[in-house]
Amino acid sequence: MKFIESIRNGLDSLLGNYPEVVLYGEDLIDPYGGAFKVTKGLSTKYPDRVWNTPISEAAIIGMSAGMAMCKMKPIVEIMFGDFTSLGVDQLLNHLTKYAWMYNNQVETPVTIRTAMGGRRGYGPTHSQSLEALLSTIPGLSIIAPSHYHDPGRILQQAVLEDSSVKVFSEYKLLYPQELQTPNTVKSGLTLDVSSDVYPIAHLSNCEFDNPEILIISYGGNALLLEQVLLDLLIEYELSAQCALPARIKPFDPLQIQHLISEAQVVLVVEESPKCHGWGAEVVATLSEAGLLSGKNVFRIGSAETPIPSSMAQEEQVLPSAAQIMETISQILV
Amino acid sequence: MENKYLLPVEDVNDDKATITRLCFNDGDLVSKGDVIYEFETTKALVEVDAEHEGHIFYAVKVSKALKTGQVVCVITNNPNYQFAISNNPQPDASYMLTKKAQAFVEKNNLDLKDLDLSGIVREKDLAALLPNGPIGHEEHILFLSRSRNDVSYLLSNPEFRKLSSEEKIEWYRIQGHEIGENCKIGDGAVLIGNKITLGSNVSIAEGAYIESPEITLNNHVTIGRDTNLVASRLKLGAFTKVGDRVVIDISGGRNTDSSFICGTNCLIASESYVNVCHQVELGDHVALSPRSMIFTHSYWQSILDGYPAQFGPVSFARDSWLGAGAQVLPNVQIGEGAIVMSGSVLAKNVNAYELVGGIPAQVIKENINKKLSPSKKMTQLEELFADFNTHLRQHGFKSRLHSARKICLDDEGSITHLSLSQAYTQEDPNSILLVLEMDETGTSPAGEIYAIQQHRAYGAPSRVGRLLTEFLRRRGIYFISSNYEQAYSLHSSTS
Questions:
Q1: Which residues of chain A lie closer than 8 angstroms to B120, CB-CB?
Q2: Which residues in chain A touch residue B96, judged by CB atoms under 8 angstroms apart?
Q3: What's A319's domain CATH number?
Q4: How far apart are CA B229 and CA B214, in angstroms?
Q5: Which of A47, A277, B242, B398 could pair with A132 as two cysteines, CB 3.0-4.6 Å apart?
Q6: Which domain holds residue A75?
Q7: Would the ipTM clear 0.85, i.e. be above it?
Q8: Which of A73-77, A261-265, B89-93 has the lowest mean pLDDT?
Q9: Separation between Cα atoms, residue A234 and residue A250, nearest integer Å
Q10: Do A166 and A266 share a domain, yes or no?
Q11: For testing the chain A interface, which of B98, B118, B333, B349 should be mutated: the one with the most A CBs within 10 Å?
Q12: A145: closest CA among A194, A86, A184?
């Protein structure tokens, strides 16, 4: 099954089984079915609960607050992650505050699905990964699965069981990817996925045998990192493991605690700029937990510039496998 | 014309099948309709017929499991057809070797054809397939093979040490060791090893004792008097000089890396002590001043009583310098061009071009070197050159500065030119070489050449040449002399 199909099935199952679930956003009804076709077919199947909205992210997100307080479970789609900024006031000053301001008499279990990430030549305002920016809002959870997770199942659990306000980030290049299981994973790699509500996927090039390198990342970076793991193996036989938590905020250091002890190099990879980024938070959290002493720690992120439209230039700005390989080989080779 | 026969998909559930019969020998002529091979799926035996005429060559062996789509055989008109030999991977190959594994295959001359490999193959996977099993940790440690006749003879027979240099060298050669030309092994000196390799012009002074399973001393290495070198692997690069009463030992225990590896043009001055419990490595042009000490282990009391213990290698990058009496502790790396002041105790790494000193050593100055442009170097040398002219006159030579880069001098009637020129060596056309050429009129080119940046002097030194090297040494440019090397040639760009 492909990543996009898994999410579509998850939405289908939610709409089919739970009348309180509604799904709306820009251009998502048939025949168009959304800019990335995730919702294709759903408006035909559930015409009264899948809607198009006007082009106003503030309205889309704000409206969900009211519905959630009326015991509905709204799922909204923001066409491009970059546009969530237009709804930030609603997220920052309304949705994430109501439960606290009204003494937990109301809750706002809203799920905001949005497509993030670059490498498609969409230019500076349609290619960003804003997880780190949004993660500074207290009370907002951020979920960013990879194709090593089951995104449809995670989405269902998030909608049904997690009453926080959630941003569900879908990396654009993951949509056509086949979901990977321990049996289908590329030769040379092994996969293990935890059974948590928000599972963490571990990808290893050494069958989890005391990796020298631990790479922490999320979402679509998995595409880059599976290549890095294979390159490290073929070029240098360096043992490395990649930890991909499905929920990146709040970040739970306990999920990777057991992996860190043997690693000499800990690397955090994100597609947004590393300055004040998610990697900084991960490193600080692990460090406070006393897990990083004596290790070589690096963050790799995009350049501190807008993302160019030219794909050749975009390649230069976003983190690359070569960059990661160079960072590691300078320490270990 | 070659026709490839790929293993067909016979059953949708099978992505592999086993070849059960090959019906011809390589090179045999086959006709259309002949059964050429047979394979077995989980459900059936299948015979495959030739669809072409020609010579048949099989890419597989009987009982080999193949993936569907892989080549089984080729029918061609070429009677001498050969499959492209490649241990590695057409994209559709069922396995891929890591770079280390490839190196392992080459080193051990492994034939992978019959091995059942799949996925990514690591060095350890291949090692496990060798008849002797995987190479154990222990076997990486080089041990002196005391059961060898020549080794036990050297260890037990004091008579050997009384032999002359020529007799010793001949004995080593008969035992299969490689000893180059013009080597000298002084009275009482002995080398004990499983494998001893000496280059040319190596000289080992009286009373030296060298013991290591693998001893490699390159051209022009000199070892001083009563020096004791013991390691698991001992390698000294060309022109390296080891002083008198130097000690290298393995106290603290022999480890997989108890080796002493030293680059070219190094100086290990008298009474230095180097412990090689773990590897000590010196890059090129590294100097250890007299009585310097390097430790690769540091402990005495038990860790069970809460005391610290430290083990680890030490390395010096090229052009670094350890001052007299300085001590280096385990796990320390000294960067390129760094200086450790005399008497310091070094417990931390030193970055390139840092000056450190004290107990424990602290950074005193960074970026101590200056990258001079070639023209700046030339200007500096021209000043030295003018001073040298004065120096010559003080020594009674009738010399005169012909130009900024040329001195003419009259040495008891014979006229000699001394010139400073920029040149490019053949071995490294990009590096600018500054040379002093001595040119005696009427005789063939350069009698003596001084490659300043390389610290090399070529040719038998004349009186002027000796004055020159002494003069430059006192001004901060040293030379390592060697006999004239035939291979050396220069292309002067200016004269």
A1: 187-188, 230, 233-234
A2: 187-188, 234
A3: 3.40.50.920
A4: 12
A5: A277
A6: 3-174
A7: no
A8: B89-93
A9: 35
A10: no
A11: B98
A12: A194
Q: Which amino acid is at B322?
A: L
What's the Rg (C-alpha) of chain A?
20
**Chain A residues touching B103 at Cβ < 8 A:** none
B131 preceded by a cis bond (ω within 30 of 0): no
Chain A to chain B, count of Cβ pairs less than 8 Å apart?
A: 25
Nearest CA in chain B to A233: B98
Q: Kindly state whether residue A180 falls inside one of the protein's structural domains.
A: no
Binary contact (B100, A233; C-beta < 8 A): no
* Touching B: A residues 74-93, CB under 8 Å: none
Q: Is A209 on the interface with B (CB under 8 A)?
A: no
By the CB < 8 Å criterion, does A230 face chain B? yes
Mind listing the pLDDT tens digit for each residue in A196-244? Answer: 899 999 999 988 888 899 999 999 999 999 999 999 999 999 999 999 9
Any CB–CB contact under 8 A between A233 and chain B? yes
The CATH number linked to A144 is 3.40.50.970
Nearest residue, CB atoms, A237 vs list B118, B119, B123: B123
Same domain, A163 and A311: no
Residue of B478, B416, B431, B488 lying closest to B458 (CA atoms): B488
Cβ-nearest to B100 among A187, A188, A237: A237
Tens-place pLDDT, residues B51-82: 989 999 888 887 777 888 888 888 988 888 87
- Give the position of tokens 């070797």: B97
- Torsion angles phi and psi, residue B22, rounded to 5: -115, 125
- Residues in chain B closer than 8 A to A210 (CB atoms): none
Domain B1-83 fold: OB fold (Dihydrolipoamide Acetyltransferase, E2P) (2.40.50)
Is pLDDT above 80 for B243?
yes
DSSP string for B340-390: E-TT-EE-S-B-TT-EEETTTTEEEES-------HHHHHHHHHHHHHHHHH
Residues A96 and A240 in one domain: no
Any idea what DSSP says for residue A178? B
Domain-located, residue A288:
yes
What homologous superfamily is domain B149-365 in, according to CATH? Answer: Hexapeptide repeat proteins (2.160.10.10)
Q: Where are the beta strands (DSSP E) in B323-374?
A: 327-328, 332-334, 339-340, 345-346, 355-357, 362-365
- Write the DSSP symbol of residue B305: G
Cβ contact, residue pair A230, B98, below 8 Å: no
The strand pair at A140-143 and B203-204 is best described as: unpaired
Q: Hey, are the CB atoms on A230 and B120 less than 8 Å from each other? A: yes
B118 vs A: CB within 8 A: yes
Please list the residue range(s) of chain B that carry CATH number 2.40.50.100. Answer: 1-83
The pLDDT of residue A165 is above 60: yes
In a domain, A254, yes or no: yes
pLDDT, residue B133, reads 46
